[in-house]
ABC transporter permease
Amino acid sequence: MIQNYFKIARRNLTRNKAFSVINILGLALGMASALLIFIWIQDELSIGKQYDNAPNLYRVMEREFSDGKVVADDNTPGLLADELKKQFPEVIHAAGFSWQEGHVLGVGNKTARQTGCYAGPDWFKMYSIPILAGAPATALNAPNSLAISRKLAEIYFGNPEKALGKSIQFDNAVNYQVTAVFENLPANSSDQYEFLLNWQDFLAKNSWMKEWTNAGPKTRFQLRADTDPNKFNDKLKWFLKGRNTDFSKTFYINLFLQPETEAHLYSSFKDGYPNGGRIEYVRLLGVVAVFLLLIAVINFMNLATARSAKRAREVGVRKVVGAGHASLIGQFMSEAMLLTALSLVTALVLVILLLPVFNQLTDKQLLLPWKQPFFWVGLSGLLVVTGFLSGSYPALFLSSLDPIKVLKGAGSLSRLGNGVGAQLFRRGLVVFQFCMSMLLIVGTVVVYRQLQYIQNKNLGYERENLISIPVEGELAKNYPLFKQQLLAMGGIQSVTNMYGGPLGNGSTTEGVSWTGKDPNAAISFNNTAVGYDFAKTLKLKFIGGRDFSQNFATDSSNYLINQAAAKRIGYKDPVGQPLTFWSKPGKIVGVIEDFHFNSLHQPITPLIIRLANEYYGNILIRTQPGQTTVALAGIEKVYKELNPKFPFAYSFVDNEYQKIYRGETVVGTLSTIFALLAIFIACLGLFGLAAFTAEQRIKEIGVRKVLGASVASIVSLLSKDFVKLVFIAIVIASPIAWYVMNQWLQNFAYKIDIDWWVFAFAGLLSLTVALLTISFQSIKAGLMNPVKSLKSE
């Protein structure tokens, strides 16, 4: 019997080729989109979970209470990891972990810049990264020890075995011994690095990390499996009390733990507590995937229903000759399953073809997980659920037809499926489709406008034509000569140096005092050190005072502040007023108009700028507009003369700025693509419903034409009901879309307002596309010869 079901199903599908192609295309597009999104979501959810000890791995976080505000981050004291192992028997392993740094690694004539970190000796004990050569337990135990990836081992030595025990010159200064070679980290690794260095070397280079009052590196640890994380969190909370001597009534720090498996997805904090992060994008795109699949399924239902009148006689005849209700349902469900299976195969082909483009768009290395059981279980579930949902309504509708009414004649066919309940159901499906399409359109417009706002917002400085070069090697001592020679070249406007950079300055301190400050108050300030011509190079605006100048020898102990700092300090006229920073008294010589030195996700905070007494961080170079290429060639030439052992490396500040918002850009692009797909698939469903309506009213249209109705009036007759449905969808979807997107915008300290015209645009677009779709069937019905439609009466 089942074989017979599928034989009949195949014949029906081949007999109605146009119907079959439209249905398969609609379902395939919805399923392919959902598959791509689900593969992306699976990759996002897997980050941090690939380690054997993942359920017991944690990160230490700081919740800092200062000046009536609460902020949280993962910067911790450099001594914390070792102390945790000493104080808590629940901690099996712990390791400090530094920020990512670029260093020049050389072996013979092979020299290149690589990216790596410093890590404690327990690192490989906690993280089950495959070791290809060496011992994981002792890989990072000794000073000047170095663990490298398979990639670096092959570049410098040919293979991992040859690399073990060999020396690599580090920054053309110190030789490090390769003590281990680890497998290349997968793309979904929570941390990315090509090499790891001994932690004691890091503390030796950064002595300030040995003080409990300073924080900067990260701390990771592994708990015993039988430890209750919540109870341990309570024990960890006040760990720094008594160690950090800066604690007071207005300033203190609580420690808390964050599971390694949640760190990637829940990286955003508000008022010191988790406030989403990447998980918001996972949820958003997950909803989009479900929407697209539902729209495709509804599209199938509408198209199947549109064909129902033509199959009514078949159902009547089958019932008369003894076909039961169950057998008819089985027949139509088998047709739905066959069509769904064909759609799924088509969807898989589309995914295979589109995956390289999707990877490039999302900066991923996604693959179809053919070898994983969950993938086949998921595909089977998708097939069954989609097939069942797609075929359930048509099967139940057609199998319930009364054979006597069906076989009475063609005139009664026009009334089939046209009851109030059936009409409301089909129209409800259309409203639901366009509600979802409306949500996607509004979301796309809001995301696009926010990204445009970010990209075009006045940051308080000009990021175009601004080049950043890291200070390393001989460049530190040769900086004055380097700057002098650059300024003598053509195409260069100005040069300065800065610790950190204009796009990310996370260094904060409470070591600031001034006349009238409450001695018991601990107030946090961002701070940085810069060279001469800093304001000139970034084109910052002064609202009072001046920039640092070589004409004033006392500027070595003077300070610049931004407006936020001036407001917090409270001087009526800050210029010339005393300010002490890290116990070094000086005066405020200039107040700079607020500029964004961090992401737009964060508000502008008080900033103190001091004059650098040594050259480190980055050199910032402003080039003349239109002369960047020529200027770069000259900069590289001077760089190689003064710092020959290091490869010339640079970045454009505006490009780095775009990278900060790469996640939002990806989501915005995906939203646009999937919104267009949703509209297209929804219109296929509308096309089906318009065809169904035209078929149901074919006799009425014939009579109207005989009585003199014009094509325009026929089109208006068939279109007005659909226009009402779209308007209903707009009314329902608009407040939902506003709420969802308003919540998303809360992640930004600086954001757009959602204007009324966004909903008007989305509604007009939905209405226009719907009218174009309906018009095709309406005009076709209006042009039909009434003789043909009425000859059977």
The chain has a mean pLDDT of 84. The first strand starts at residue 57 and ends at 66. Residues 322 and 698 are 31 Å apart (CA to CA). The chain has three domains: 2-43+279-450+662-790, 54-263, 466-656.
